[in-house]
Amino acid sequence: MSDQLWTVIMLTVATAIALHIRFHHMDIPFALVFIWAFIGIAVKHGTDEMLVTTASLFLSGVILTGILLIKKRTAPTQ
Are 23 and 17 in contact (CB under 8 A)? Predict the structure, then answer.
């Protein structure tokens, strides 16, 4: 597999980790660090590697959506 494909796979795994921490620990700054890193990756690669740039920007949007939409439900009281 190519280096670009491995990068996209690792970015996807990192996104899953960020969303997991966001949901279970309600830690917004932790997820924001991932967005910051992904945007940095996109800027570094620029138009040279469009697959990596597009994936990192898309996954930044996924994390941002997760930050805005994930709400942990509380257990119903009896």
Answer: no
> What are the residues whose beta carbons fall under 8 Å from the beta carbon of 39, sequence distance 6 or more?
56, 57, 60
User: Which pair of tokens denotes residue 10?
Assistant: 């690792």
Give residue 44's identity as a one-letter amino acid code. Answer: K
Please state, in angstroms and as integers, the Cα–Cα distance from residue 73 to each residue in 10, 23, 54, 70, 78, following that order. Answer: 29, 10, 33, 9, 15
| Tens digits of residue pLDDT in 40-69 | 999 998 888 899 999 999 999 999 999 999
Q: Reply yes or no on whether the pLDDT at 38 is more than 80.
A: yes
DSSP 61: H
